């Protein structure tokens, strides 16, 4: 068989591969808001089912009571190639 005839089939086969690897959620969420409780100053959340403690904000941010705020706004800079 001529390789030029096989190439389109190989390309199509590999182009569809990411779709097969994607995650699909099935059904409704099985967790309720009552499964979680704020602890300390609200900057952490306890998962009552697993016992895990989650931080609300990423490192170098603090919880204001409603949202995450950068600890030092001057240090928050856009990535390479981005401008203000």
Please summarize what this structure is.
The protein has two helices and five strands; from the N terminus they run ααβββββ.
Main features:
2 helices; alpha+beta; 84 residues; 3-stranded antiparallel β-sheet; two-stranded antiparallel ribbon; single chain
Describe the protein's architecture and organization:
With 84 residues, the protein is α+β, with helices and mostly antiparallel strands. The protein has a domain at 31-71. Helix content is 21%, strand content 20%. It contains 2 helices and 5 strands; from the N terminus they run H-H-E-E-E-E-E. The chain has helices spanning 3-15, 17-21, and strands at residues 36-39, 44-47, 53-55, 61-63, 68-70. Strands 1-2-3 form a 3-stranded antiparallel sheet, with no helix packed on it. A two-stranded antiparallel ribbon has the order 4-5. Strand 1 and strand 2 form a beta hairpin. The longest helix is centred in the N-terminal third of the chain and has 13 residues, at 3-15. The model has no long low-confidence stretch (mean pLDDT 79).
């Amino acid at each position: 068989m001529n390789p030029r005839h096989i190439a389109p089939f190989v390309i199509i086969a590999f182009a569809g591969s990411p779709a097969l690897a994607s995650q699909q959620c099935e059904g409704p969420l099985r967790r309720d808001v009552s499964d979680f409780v704020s602890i300390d100053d609200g900057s952490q959340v306890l998962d009552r089912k697993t016992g895990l403690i989650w931080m609300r904000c990423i490192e170098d941010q603090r919880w204001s009571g409603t949202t995450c705020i950068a600890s030092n706004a001057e240090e928050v800079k856009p990535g390479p190639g981005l401008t203000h």
